[in-house]
Amino acid sequence: MVIVQSWARGRMTRFTDSFRAFWLPALNGPGMLRLLLALLVWVSHASRLEVGGPAVMVFFMLSGYWVTGLYLRHNGSIASFMLDRFLRVWPLLAIVAILTVAARLWLDVPAAGHLASTLMLLGLATRNQDVLGVAWSLDFELQFYFALPFLMMLVAPTGVLVKWRALIVLLVATPVGLWLMYDQGIATVLALVPAFGAGLAIRLTGWTCSGRAALASVIAFASFGVICLLVPELRHILLKTPGVWSPADLRICMAWCLVLVPYIAWNVRQSPPPVDRLLGDLSFPFYLLHFPVLSIGTAVGLFAPDWAGKLAALLAAVTLTLLVYQFIDRPIEAWRIGRRSRLTPALAE
Question: What pTM was computed for the model?
Answer without folding.
Answer: 0.90
